[in-house]
Specification:
Blueprint: E1 2-6, H1 10-22, E2 26-30, H2 33-42, E3 47-50, E4 53-54, E5 57-58, H3 59-68, E6 74-79, H4 84-92, E7 97-100, H5 105-120, E8 127-129, E9 132-135, E10 140-143, E11 146-147, H6 152-162, E12 168-170, H7 171-179, H8 190-205, E13 210-215, E14 219-224
Parallel strand pairs: 1-2, 1-3, 3-6, 6-7
Antiparallel strand pairs: 4-5, 8-9, 9-10, 10-11, 12-14, 13-14
Helix pairs in contact: 2-3, 6-7, 6-8
Length: 227
């Protein structure tokens, strides 16, 4: 899961980043309005943590632009402004939740998980595709009820596909989502091929019914294996 923190207070931004990275999120940051707009215009995120008061603009304007671009990021507004008007304005513009400063990092983590479950997993704690079951809160994978051991990147790749079954996935988008925005500067994607090759072997050996299919010239598709 890849998050974007839009927050101008450096100490809070860094604290949030370190805490969320410990929970195995891929975390990107933007300290101001202009950087935020550049990032959301170029990359995709699973969840955006958005401060309203930015030094060069309003977080509400960022939210409005996200919706104009028809982007599907979950948005949690995080702001010291805790008035009813601000909450209503943010929620009316499409924010999924609102967390007032100061807050506990544990609550922030719980809000992120809740929003993602609600919008991606129909409120469920588990994701199922075919005979594969993933429990994101504990990073566990089961096939026909038996646990499958994966390394971190194999797990992250599988979770990304489990959230997007039957969808064509561009290899560069996959790389950015699992490794971070900076990965678009690499010369090739051999590291992705290696991880997916190993993941495919493990899934096949465990008897998984879904499979990751290569789509020539584009990327991959996670689909139920045809009979």
């Amino acid at each position: 899961m890849k998050l974007l923190i839009i927050e101008d207070e450096a100490s809070l931004r860094e604290l949030m980043q370190r805490s969320l990275e410990k929970e195995r999120y891929v975390v990107e940051c933007a300290p101001d309005f202009n950087t935020a707009m550049q990032k959301i215009g170029t990359y995709d995120y699973d969840c955006v943590l958005l401060d309203i008061m930015l030094p060069d603009g309003s977080g509400l304007d960022v939210l409005e632009e996200l919706k104009k671009m028809r982007k599907k990021e979950n948005v949690i507004i995080i702001s010291a402004k805790d008035s009813i008007e601000d909450k209503v304005a943010g929620l009316d513009l499409g924010a999924d939740d609102y967390l007032a400063k100061p807050f506990h990092l544990a609550e922030l983590s719980a809000r992120i998980k809740s929003v993602i479950r609600r919008n991606h997993h129909n409120g469920e704690n588990k994701i199922t595709c075919g005979n594969i079951e993933v429990t994101p809160d504990t990073f566990q994978v089961y096939i026909d009820g038996k646990e499958l051991e994966l390394n971190r990147k194999e797990y992250d790749i599988l979770l990304y596909f489990m959230n997007r079954p039957e969808r064509l996935v561009n290899k560069s988008t996959l790389a950015e989502s699992v490794w971070g925005d900076h990965i678009d500067q690499v010369d090739n994607y051999d590291f992705i091929y290696a991880q997916i090759k190993n993941l495919r072997k493990k899934l096949k050996a465990a008897g998984a019914t879904p499979e990751i299919k290569a789509v020539y010239g584009f990327g991959y598709k996670f689909t139920l294996e045809e009979a």
